[in-house]
Amino acid sequence: MEYEWFNMKINLSRKFHPPVTKKCYMPGVEKRSKVNLLCSNMDKGKSKGYGSSSTQSEVDAYRTGQPMETWMSEDDNSEDSDMPYLKLQEANNIFKAIYKEIMTIAFEAKYYIKALPALGSIEEFQKVFRISPPPGVRLETTTETATVPIPARTLCMSLMDLDSWHASMSHIFQYVGGNMPDDVFQDLKHEDPSILHVEKVNVEFHLPTPFAAVRKFSFLRFLKEVMPDELWTIIDVSEDYFHDVGNMTERKCRRRPSAVLIRACDDHSEVIWIENMEVPKQSQLQDDTYSALINSDEAFSAKRWVNALLWNLKRFRGTFFMQEIKWGHPSYLSLLSLTTNMRMDFMKCLRGSPDDRDWKILTDHGMRIMQDATGRSHEACNICGYTSVVSFRIQAKPQLVFQYLVKKNRQLQWLLLLDEEAKEILRFAADDESNLVTLHQRPAITKEDWKTEEYLLQEASWDGFCYLIISATMNQADVFFSLIARYKDVDLKPSGFAIVPDGPESSLVTFSLQEDLLVPDAETGIRVKSYVTNRIISEIMEEMAGVLEAKS
Questions:
Q1: pLDDT at residue 530 above 70?
Q2: pLDDT tens digits along 28-76
Q3: What pLDDT is attached to residue 355?
Q4: DSSP bridge pairs for 71
Q5: What residues form DSSP beta bridges with 236?
Q6: What's the 3-state SS for 208-255?
Q7: Which residues are registered as beta bridge partners of 240?
Q8: Burial profile 166-188: b = 16 or more Cβ within 10 angstroms, e = fewer
Q9: Which helix (H) or strand (E) holds 345?
Q10: What CA dihedral angle connects 100, 102, 107 and 108, to 10 degrees?
Q11: What distance lies between CA 535 and its chain's CA centroid?
Q12: Of 133, 188, 191, 257, whose CB count within 10 A is highest?
């Protein structure tokens, strides 16, 4: 099966064509090897380890006082050009130290890295990554390895395509934006042909609740080819490790050298995932109510990212177990694209600071209530979209809460008294049911007393840490144009639940309910939403108590 959700085109085996250069002598500055020492020393027939030591002749190339290729054109003034060359050489040495630090972490974890690369005299640069974090900050370092059922090149492209990366992992982070980094990093990429791509990234790591502190990161992402056609590494590192490059504002969160090492293995990939970051200690969090959960090292661990990656691949390898849509057979890609957008819209409502172009926050005390700011609502009829978001705890394990809410969510969306009123007409599931998409249908009457059907699309998923149940109502036109004809995007208003563990026998549940209300003003909208949401939570707590009692 082709993974069509990866669409970025990066040439992973490009040929290097440097600009016209001239030779000059720069005593005291290390010479930059024209090829990666690690790659040039590899015996591609060896599959047991990466990182063999360089030969003495290669190390000698780093001695000072040797001719050095520069990017200086013939009419440049050498005195004015010294500073850019020094910056480039410093960035070059720092990047080598970052790469060696990543290989060191993988080597110490006793994964398939069997030896460390010899990259010259960079120990002083590497020491920076081993110092203790500043006061009030703790270091969180985790590693995980797995065999992933996807070709290595495709995996590299998916992680470098920031929009695709965000779409597949939107329940873990929010992609705020990215741009091309400073010129020195572009020069570094041209200087080292093993660096295939570099980009500056701004993201927010978040729990699925708007009331917990987010982790805001700004970092550089590199794609480096270690061994041609065999081993790549995607490197994340905070830009402020590169001295005299960029002006980083003070941040509480900092990305130390982190990476995903990807080794090709036929049509699979052997992955080593390294998460390495400085984050605030518990005392500095915005809300101590969620501090234990954030500081558990589980929410943003390497294991969580690997499990989420595997979950998404299983999702795209799902199978139709039922399909009774009368107009034709839907495409699984159209179905998953629709539910992906539904999840992304759902997570936007759970952001700590939602986009004011989408939502206007009316109240944020215990329960967040927002008003639609997009202008999609029928203002002339006093109909406006409102969303309520609230988090609460249930003294039960997440899996049990999830099983109960999968059915409850459908009842809440349609205010059903009996589940028999709705008929399931589509079921698409992963082999292990870590992802389940269903479409239910029930009869309805239009304002003109015409008989029709309305539909409820729901996706229930679990990535090993977080459970999601997200649904949205659809009409006949929505179903036909988005799933059968496949040429129209539909504007869905998703609601649902996010569930994460909060201790051994407890769950943190976040409930978001989106609906249109016919009310005279925003104050009335707040009162209506507060009443409806609190009534639903009371009902859930009462019914869950009955479930636990019956189970015991």
A1: yes
A2: 334 333 333 333 333 333 333 343 333 333 333 333 333 333 333 444 4
A3: 86
A4: none
A5: 221, 258
A6: CCCCCCCEEEEEEEEEEEEECCCEEEEEEEEHHHCCCCCCCCCCCCEE
A7: none
A8: bbbbbbbbbbeebeebbebbebb
A9: helix 332-349
A10: 110
A11: 34
A12: 257
- Reference 187, options 74, 428, 19, 390; nearest CA is 19
For residue 305, how many C-alpha atoms fall within 13 Å in the half-sphere facing its CB?
22
Of 265, 260, 301, 269, the C-alpha closest to 102 is: 260
Quote the CA–CA distance of 253 and 133 in Å, as a whole number.
11
CA angle 469/473/474 to nearest 5° reads: 130
Q: Is 131 exposed, middle or buried (0-12, 13-18, 19+ CB in 10 A)?
A: exposed
Quote the CA–CA distance of 278 and 134 in Å, as a whole number.
9
Burial pattern 252-262, b for ≥16 Cβ within 10 A else e, equals ebbbbbbbbbb
Using CA atoms, how far apart are residues 305 and 292, in angstroms rounded to an integer?
20
Distance of CA 129 to the CA centre of its chain: 24
CA atoms within a 13 Å half-sphere pointing along the CA-CB vector of 388? 24
The answer to whether 268 touches 149, Cβ cutoff 8 Å, is yes
206 secondary structure, DSSP code: -
CA-CA distance, 46 to 76, in Å (whole number)? Answer: 46
CA 56 from chain center: how many Å? Answer: 42
Residue 333 carries which DSSP code?
H
Which of 351, 398, 3 lies closest to 161, judged by CA?
A: 3
Measured between alpha carbons, how far is 419 from 400 in angstroms, rounded to an integer? 20
Strands 435-445 and 423-429, by their bridges, are antiparallel
Q: Is 95 left (phi over 0), alpha (psi -120 to 50) or beta?
A: alpha
Q: Six-digit token pair at 11?
A: 């040439």
Residues 6+ apart with CB under 8 A from 545: none
**What mean pLDDT is predicted for residues 451-470?**
94
Rg of the chain on CA atoms, in Å: 27
Residue 515: strand, helix, or coil: strand
Q: Provide the whole-model pTM.
A: 0.82
In whole angstroms, what is the distance from residue 96 CA to residue 98 CA?
5
Three-state DSSP class for residue 105: helix
Dist CA 318 CA 308 (whole Å): 15
DSSP string, 118-139: --SS-HHHHGGGGSPPPTTEEE
Token digits for 450?
Answer: 């015409």
For residue 31, what pLDDT is reported? 38
pLDDT at 286: 47
